[in-house]
Amino acid sequence: MSRTDDGGSAHATQPSEPLKPLDIRSVGTSPQRLDGPGKVTGTARYAWEHPLAAPLYVHPLQAAVARGRVVVMDTGQAEALDGVLAVLTPYNAPRLADTGDAELAVLQSEEVAFRGQFIGAVVAETAEVARHAAQLVAVEYEQLPHDTELSTGRSDLYRPEVVNPTYPTDTEDGDAEAAFAAAPVTVDVTYSTPMEHNNPMEPHTCVAVWEVPEAPGSQPRLTLYDSTQGAHQVRKTLAPLFELPPESVRVVSPHVGGGFGSKGMPHAHDVLAVMAAKVSGGRPAKLALTRQQMFSLAGHRTPTVQRLRLGADSSGRLTALCHDVIEQTSRIKEFAEQTGVASRMMYAAENRSTSHRLAALDIPVPSWMRAPGEAPGMFAAEAAMDELALACGIDPVELRVRNEPGTDPESGRPWSGRHLVQCLRTGAERFGWDRRTGPGTRREGDWLIGMGVASSTYPAYAFPGSVAEIERRADGGGGPGGYAVRIGAADLGTGTWTALTQIAADALDCPLGEVHLEIGDTDLPSGTVAGGSSGINSWGSTVVAAARAFREEHGAAPAPGARTRASMPSDPALRNYAAHSFGAQFAEVRVHTGTGEVRVPRMLGVFSTGRIINPRTARSQFIGGMVMGMSMALFEESVFDHGTGHVVNHDFAQYHVPTCADVLDIDAVWLDEPDLHANPMGAKGIGEIGIVGSPAAVVNAVHNATGIRVRDLPVTPDKLLRS
Amino acid sequence: MPHRRCHQRAAYAQVWHRAVGWYWGGVDFQLTLRVDGEARSLTVDTRTTLLDTLRDRLSVTSPKKGCDHGQCGACTVLLDGRRVLSCLTLAVAHDGAEVTTAGGLASADGELHPLQRAFLDHDGFQCGYCTPGQICSAAGMLAEAAAGHPSAVTAAADDGPDSQGGPDGTVALSDDEIRERMSGNLCRCGAYVNIVAAIREVSAK
Hints:
Largest sheet of chain B: 5 strands, mixed
Number of strands of chain B: 6
Largest sheet of chain A: 7 strands, mixed
Shape of chain A: globular
Mean pLDDT of chain B: 88
CATH class of the largest domain in chain A: Alpha Beta
Distance between the termini of chain A: 38 Å
Radius of gyration of chain A: 26 Å
Order of helices and strands of chain B: EHEEHEEEHHHHH
Structural class of chain A: alpha+beta
Helix content of chain B: 25-40%
Radius of gyration of chain B: 21 Å
Oligomer: heterodimer
Strand order of the largest sheet of chain A: 3-5-1-14-11-12-13
CATH class of the largest domain in chain B: Mainly Alpha
Mean pLDDT of chain A: 96
């Protein structure tokens, strides 16, 4: 995810010595979610739901061609409809001060760069009238040939400068080609993964209010109620487009209905909502993408084609590991997923090479989707490891143990904490791995049964730029009454409201109930984006620093109103270590011999992710990630029609995500080992690692059940029946 | 570069849009709903769904809009005691109806419904956006099972000892029954095992 540097003023200086561990009391316990009562009653307010007087409703217009330009937009009928306030088009939309980000340069030209791109919007008194009017706008295009198909044979694949966020595009350690050619055992396989869509349950929503004070010369004020993983990031991105100073923009986002990366940065609908607000005379303009619109306007996971070449000696020790990735980006904005990056540090292969090549296509803009890079990359790499285990005649758990590196193969640095072998051994024991038999040998009636394993990993990111404020509150009578803890953090289901409160309570050495956390608002000190599983690492470290500075400044019994700010401390000592999370994931599958249906009766994840702040919410995040990984293995595929240039299965009836009936026994456990090199909490982030290993575990289990190796996700019944 | 002007398409579109404009124009209609115990009278466009009526006209935002097509279940409410997808329900068709949202399942003094307490205890959600729909759906589902409504996984009475139908005409809720009956409510955060645990606990009481 992006490294943000959204600094704010910080009154405390940054220490340079190693950070003191946090004394824990609340951390490690499992209070229920503090935002839970609001969520089980539905009274917690998401972006659409803030009470605002006299709102207007925005319905977008989208391009019906994949490439070309709008030549005529007849808005007459729409504008004549009762209740229509405005129809925005490329011809009349407000001009943006900066069009450098082509995804956000909404309605700045008649050019159409992909099907589904915004070409206008209706602003009306009701949602029904807005939608009706949108259907009355007649559009004529000059259509140009489009090119949307990713393939390995393309002559225009290019090498991006870096891959997300700033990793080298290619790496070469030792002589991987020569080592592969000389290896006694080799696996040379190509895997592919499809386009996928994040599909959080809450559609991307932005309610914008553009107020112009009556006093002459005064600055307009923009307020956004936005569904975002980073309120400050939204402000920082959007304010310059509308020539507003950041302090004239407020972004409010206390509760977010899931994001999985797709709300990690503002998208085009945020810009469109602000434009609508600008023509709404101070009234709120409400815009929520429809589920269908989300498939072209809120990012997607790139499809990948990945060639894996593994070379090993006869005992299974890797001598060569080559991971070459081909993926797509949009022609108007580059997003280069770091798909092969985990292969650089995962195993002790002396000779390693990785590469990434992109095709720039006439497609919607790809972006972050839960564990961008690691999820598809580790799927291919860990499935290839399963193939190598078979080729060597070694148990897949044992193969991974034999290739455990003592230090980070990429940097040479010691691990801050790597307990992968312990995860594998613990998981094998708990899962009953010893009951696994050879491929295609276990059958119960019409069902073939198999088990699979895969490793997972995710970097322990922490992004600088957060600032926290602690203030001693007054109770009703003017005496001291707890502590306000303020930071522009986000909770998109991640448990931030609860976990950050626990960290603050321990850092202030006070009961949980005395902490009054405030997050999700740019009126609070700056918070970095909830992405890259960095939230609790970044914000938690910042809150700990602020609490320590507060105690140093104001002592144990501060007077009401006492207040201190601190920014996220940097920890130079951490640079001496390679800090990553690890996990071992196990799956059991049943495959029906007649229909090819795959069921997943059991999954287990054993994780090494440092200290767990709140076991109750952490388990939910782990198993939620595992469900999404199982979904990636079996269900998810955005079917792109290259004739029309759009995703044809753009709804929940056709883009399949797991239902309650698809998920049986899924559990997650973790090793109890705080990683005190990482930060004062000893935590390493848990939002993404759950999805990383589970697709390969499921696919490897399908092979163990059937003897069929599916190298093209998702594993749908047709792929098993035709083999 | 070969160009193609879409004159023909535009002409068709004009005809289509005129037809749509005539056909899809709304008409106002006055109705009264009883929402979470409170009578609410208002005028709605005949095209307005129950979901939008609740959220945008009555500021009852407990039911959520996840897909607007009846595919996700986030908008589930109890309509005269039965669970319905309020995004597929036109308000105009339910004048006088009793609507209960997850907000109304809690008592007026804020005491939570047993399902709500169980969802908190079992952490049956993460982002919370599908949760009010899950809880309304669970409440409706428990009533359906108690009334003996079978599901796709309910064994028929003549299936012998595996029969899941209770002697009193109710359906015993195994985990498979709960999963089957709750599969109209998607949870992208993947909280299903905890949702099933919460409902199992309440149904066992």
